[in-house]
C-alpha cells in the first residue's frame, strides 16, 4: 500500500529526502534531463518512467539554481489536478508556498492571458466562458437564417467541425476554400464566422476560443509576443504527445525567442497519445528536432510504477500497434514481482459490477486504502452499474470528472443566475433564468424582449428592462420579470457591500429559485436543494464571484478535492498521468472496448488509438491490474450478448491469469462451460474462423438469435463441431444439434 501522504499522485512517492537532495533521488538519465537546463529538450519515454517527476524537479531546479524567478517559468499540465499536484510538489522542494506561477492547463493559462489582452480580439476582460450547452444553443440561433436542414446537419455536428478548425488554429478568415465541404450545405465557414461575431457581441468565448484568440494575438501583435518572450525564460510541457495544432503553434510562438535559446522542455510518450479525436497530433513529437534545431533527446527506460507482470502485459499489448517509435521499458522497482494480471469473464454487466465491488472489498479487508483503487471505464455509460452497486454496498467512491456535479440542471440554473449578475451582457444566462422558476414568459414574450434588445442594441436583460419601464408588456408576467431584474440589481449591490457568498444566497432566495425546488414534490428535489447548498459552500473557497465562475468553467474536467479515502470511478481518458495500487478495468468487450464507433468507422488508426488507451489503463496500476469482460450487457433497455475484446487475445499468457467467475451467474447457467473451453475464450477462435458452425447451409455466429421448436427463442453462446450452445429465454442452457435450430 502506498504510504505517502498524497495517495494516487504520480508526483509523491516518498515524503522524505527533499530539499537539497532532490537530485539524488533521480536515476542518471533523469538527472541528465534536469541538468541540461538550457536549450530545447525532449524526454521521450514510456509510462511510469518519471517524466512528470523530471518536469517538476526541473522546475524546482531552475528556481533553486537562480536561473529564473517563479513567474518566469511557463509550465503546462494536462489536467487541473496535475497542475495542483505540481504546485504542491514544487512548494515542497522549495520549502515555501509557490505563488504567482504560470502553471496550469493550456486552457487555464490561455484564459489568464486572454483576460490581459481581451481588447485585441474585441472582448472586454470580464468575458464569459460558455459551456457546451450554451455553445450549442447559441449555434442553433446563429444557424437559423440559413434555414439548413437540421435533421441532416444537426448543430452538434457543425459544432464539431468548428471545434476542429479551432484546434487547428483556424479563425474564420484562415479557413481556406479547400476546407469548405458540403457540410451544412456548404455554409459551415459562413456560420462559423457568424457564430464568432455573435460570441463577441455577448462578450463571451467558448473553450476553443481561449487557445485560438491568444494564439491569434501572439501571431499578430509583435509587442505582446515580445512581452512574453521577455517574461518566460523556461517552458515546460507535460503529455506533449496530446497537444493539438493550435497548442503547438502557441508553444512554438512563445518558445522561439529571437537571439535567445529556446528553453523548452517537453515530455511525452507516443504510446499514450489518446486524444486524436480531439485534434491532437502525435506528429508534434516527431517534429520536435526539426522545430528546435540542436534539441537534445533523452530516453528513460526504468519504470518505477508497476510490477513486472503489469509491464509485461502492457508491453505485449502495445507491441500489436504498427506505428510506434518503440521504447524499452524495464522495471526500476526493487521488489517488482507481484501477481499476474487477472482477466475475468462474468455473466453480465451487473455481475461485473458485483465482481469488481467484491474484489475492492476484499482488497480493503487486506489493508489497501480505497484511495488507492480505481475503476477505469471506456465510456461514461458504464459507470451507472458501478455507481448503483457502490451505493448498495456502501463503499465510498467518487466520480472523477467533476462534470457530473456541474452538469446537473439545478447547478446550471444557479450558475446562470450568477452569470447574469456578474455579466449583464450574458444573454444566454438571462434567457435560461427568465422563466425558471415559471414567470409566465412564453415564446412570444421572449421574442418581444429580444426585439427590444436588438432595436436598442443592448443586451437582452437591458432590453427587457427598457420594455418593462415603457409599459411595452403588462400584467402579472411583467411584474414578475421586473422583480427578477430588481433582484439581479440588488444582488449586485450586496455583492459590492457584503461579498459574493451573501449575495448569491440572496439571489437564489429572492429570485424564487430555491422556493421552486422546495415546492417541488419529485423525489429528486431534496437532493437538488442539497446540491445547491453544496454550490454555495464551494463559493466560499473563492475570493470573488468572477474567480468562482472562471473556476467552474475551467475545472469541469477531472477535478476533485482530496478528502477521505474513496474509490475512484473515471474514464480511461481521465486517468492519464495518474497511478493507483489497484486498477479495475471492466468492459473489455468488442463494441465497448474497442468502442463500437471505432469498429464501425475508426479503421486501423482508430483501433491503434483504442489499444493505446488500453495501454494507458494497464500502466496506471502499481500492484494489481484486474480486467473484466461480461457475456452480455444492457444497452438502453435491451440485453445484448457481447464478445470478449480482441485486446484480451493480445495479452501475453505468461503474465495473465484467465478465469471465469463461478457461482454468481444468473439462472443457473454455467458460463465457464459455455463461453470458455480449456481456459481459452471460444470467441478468440472464432475470429480466425468467422463462422462458428455452418450446417444446412446456414451459418451461425455467437450472439445470433435463434428459435428451437421445443425450447423457444434464445441466443447462441457457444458451439462445437455439430452442436450449438444456446441460452433460452427460460434461463436454461442447452447443447443442441444445429440442424434443429432456426436462425431468426
Ligand atoms: P506517465 O507516462 O503515466 O505520465 P510518468 O513517466 O510521468 O508516467 P511519473 O508519474 O513521473 O511517470 O513517475 C511514476 C512513478 O515513479 C511515480 O510514483 C514517481 O514518484 C516514481 N519515480 C519516478 N522516478 C523515480 C526514481 N528515480 N526513483 C524512485 N521512484 C521514482
Ligand atoms: Mg506523467
Automatic annotation (TrEMBL):
Protein name: DNA 3'-5' helicase
Lineage: Bacteria, Pseudomonadati, Pseudomonadota, Alphaproteobacteria, Acetobacterales
E.C. number(s) listed in UniProt: 5.6.2.4
GO biological process: recombinational repair
Family named by the database record: Belongs to the helicase family. UvrD subfamily.
Catalytic reaction equation(s): Couples ATP hydrolysis with the unwinding of duplex DNA by translocating in the 3'-5' direction; ATP + H2O = ADP + phosphate + H(+)
Cellular-component GO terms for this entry: cytosol; DNA helicase complex
Ranges for region Disordered: 1-20
Keyword Repeat assigned: no
InterPro entries, per the entry: DExx_box_DNA_helicase_dom_sf (IPR013986), DNA_helicase_UvrD-like_C (IPR014017), DNA_helicase_UvrD/REP (IPR000212), P-loop_NTPase (IPR027417), UvrD-like_ATP-bd (IPR014016)
Biased composition (Polar residues): 1-16
Positions bound to ATP: 45-52
Listed PROSITE patterns: UVRD_HELICASE_ATP_BIND (PS51198), UVRD_HELICASE_CTER (PS51217)
Pfam families found in the cross-reference section: UvrD-helicase, UvrD_C
Classification via Gene3D superfamilies: 1.10.10.160, P-loop containing nucleotide triphosphate hydrolases, PCRA, domain 4
Sorted UniProt keywords: ATP-binding, DNA-binding, Helicase, Hydrolase, Isomerase, Nucleotide-binding
Amino acid at each position: 500500500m502506498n504510504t505517502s501522504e498524497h495517495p494516487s499522485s504520480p508526483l509523491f512517492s516518498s515524503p522524505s529526502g527533499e530539499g537539497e537532495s532532490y537530485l539524488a533521488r533521480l536515476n542518471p538519465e533523469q538527472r541528465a534531463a534536469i541538468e541540461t537546463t538550457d536549450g530545447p529538450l525532449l524526454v521521450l519515454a514510456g509510462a511510469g518512467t518519471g517524466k512528470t517527476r523530471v518536469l517538476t524537479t526541473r522546475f524546482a531546479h531552475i528556481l533553486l539554481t537562480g536561473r529564473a524567478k517563479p513567474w518566469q517559468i511557463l509550465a503546462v499540465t494536462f489536467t487541473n489536478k496535475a497542475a495542483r499536484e505540481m504546485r504542491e510538489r514544487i512548494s515542497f522542494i522549495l520549502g515555501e508556498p509557490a505563488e504567482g506561477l504560470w502553471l496550469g492547463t493550456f486552457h487555464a493559462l490561455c484564459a489568464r492571458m486572454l483576460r490581459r489582452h481581451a481588447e485585441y480580439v474585441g472582448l472586454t476582460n470580464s468575458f464569459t466562458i460558455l459551456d457546451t450547452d450554451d455553445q450549442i444553443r447559441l449555434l442553433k440561433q446563429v444557424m437559423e437564417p440559413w434555414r439548413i436542414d437540421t435533421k441532416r446537419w444537426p448543430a452538434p455536428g457543425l459544432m464539431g467541425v468548428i471545434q476542429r478548425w479551432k484546434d487547428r488554429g483556424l479563425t474564420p478568415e484562415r479557413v481556406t476554400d479547400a476546407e469548405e465541404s458540403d457540410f451544412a450545405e456548404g455554409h459551415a465557414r459562413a456560420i462559423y464566422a457568424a457564430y464568432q461575431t455573435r460570441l463577441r457581441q455577448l462578450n463571451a468565448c467558448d473553450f476553443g476560443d481561449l487557445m485560438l484568440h491568444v494564439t491569434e494575438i501572439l501571431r499578430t501583435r509583435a509587442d505582446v509576443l515580445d512581452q512574453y518572450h521577455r517574461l518566460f525564460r523556461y517552458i515546460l510541457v507535460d503529455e506533449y504527445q496530446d497537444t493539438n495544432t493550435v497548442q503547438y503553434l502557441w508553444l512554438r510562438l512563445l518558445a522561439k525567442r529571437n537571439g535567445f535559446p529556446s528553453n523548452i522542455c517537453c515530455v511525452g510518450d507516443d504510446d499514450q497519445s489518446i486524444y486524436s479525436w480531439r485534434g491532437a497530433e502525435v506528429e508534434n513529437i516527431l517534429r520536435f528536432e526539426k522545430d528546435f534545431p540542436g534539441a537534445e533527446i533523452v530516453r528513460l527506460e526504468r519504470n518505477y510504477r508497476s510490477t513486472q507482470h503489469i509491464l509485461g502485459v502492457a508491453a505485449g499489448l502495445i507491441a500489436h500497434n504498427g506505428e510506434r517509435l518503440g521504447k524499452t521499458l524495464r522495471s526500476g522497482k526493487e521488489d517488482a514481482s507481484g501477481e499476474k494480471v487477472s482477466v475475468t469473464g462474468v455473466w453480465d454487466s451487473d455481475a461485473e459490477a458485483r465482481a469488481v465491488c467484491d474484489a475492492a472489498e476484499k482488497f480493503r479487508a487486506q489493508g489497501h486504502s480505497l484511495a488507492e483503487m480505481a475503476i477505469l471505464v471506456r465510456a461514461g455509460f458504464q459507470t451507472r452499474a458501478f455507481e448503483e452497486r457502490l451505493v448498495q454496498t456502501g463503499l465510498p467512491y467518487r466520480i472523477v470528472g467533476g462534470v457530473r456535479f456541474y452538469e446537473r440542471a439545478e447547478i446550471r440554473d444557479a450558475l446562470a443566475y450568477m452569470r447574469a449578475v456578474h455579466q449583464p451582457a450574458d444573454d444566454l444566462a438571462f434567457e435560461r433564468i427568465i422563466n425558471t422558476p415559471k414567470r409566465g414568459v412564453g415564446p412570444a414574450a421572449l421574442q418581444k424582449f429580444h426585439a427590444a434588445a436588438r432595436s436598442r442594441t443592448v443586451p437582452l436583460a437591458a432590453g427587457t428592462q427598457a420594455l418593462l419601464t415603457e409599459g411595452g408588456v403588462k400584467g402579472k408576467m411583467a411584474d414578475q420579470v421586473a422583480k427578477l431584474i430588481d433582484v439581479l440589481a440588488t444582488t449586485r449591490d450586496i455583492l459590492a457591500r457584503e461579498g459574493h457568498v451573501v449575495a448569491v444566497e440572496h439571489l437564489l432566495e429572492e429570485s424564487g429559485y430555491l422556493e421552486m425546488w422546495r415546492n417541488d414534490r419529485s423525489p429528486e428535489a431534496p437532493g437538488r436543494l442539497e446540491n445547491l447548498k453544496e454550490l454555495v459552500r464551494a463559493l466560499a473557497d473563492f475570493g470573488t464571484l468572477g474567480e468562482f465562475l472562471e473556476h467552474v468553467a475551467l475545472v469541469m474536467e477531472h477535478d476533485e478535492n482530496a478528502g477521505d479515502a474513496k474509490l475512484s470511478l473515471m474514464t480511461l481518458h481521465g486517468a492519464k498521468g495518474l497511478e493507483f495500487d489497484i486498477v479495475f478495468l471492466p468492459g473489455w468487450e468488442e463494441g465497448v472496448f474497442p468502442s463500437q464507433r471505432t469498429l464501425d468507422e475508426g479503421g486501423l488508426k482508430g483501433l491503434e488509438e483504442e489499444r493505446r488507451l488500453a495501454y494507458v489503463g494497464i500502466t496506471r496500476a502499481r500492484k494489481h491490474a484486474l480486467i473484466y469482460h461480461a457475456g452480455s450487457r444492457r444497452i438502453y433497455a435491451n440485453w445484448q450478448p457481447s464478445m470478449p475484446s480482441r485486446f484480451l487475445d493480445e495479452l501475453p499468457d505468461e503474465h495473465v491469469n484467465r478465469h471465469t467467475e463461478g457461482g454468481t451467474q444468473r439462472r443457473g447457467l454455467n458460463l465457464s462451460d459455455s463461453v470458455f473451453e480449456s481456459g481459452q475464450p471460444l470467441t478468440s477462435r472464432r475470429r480466425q474462423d468467422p463462422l462458428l458452425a455452418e450446417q444446412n447451409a446456414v451459418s451461425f455466429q455467437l450472439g445470433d438469435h435463434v428459435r428451437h421448436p421445443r425450447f423457444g427463442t434464445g441466443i447462441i453462446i457457444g458451439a462445437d463441431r455439430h452442436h450449438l450452445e444456446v441460452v433460452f429465454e427460460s434461463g436454461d442452457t442447452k447443447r443442441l444439434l444445429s440442424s434443429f435450430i432456426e436462425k431468426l
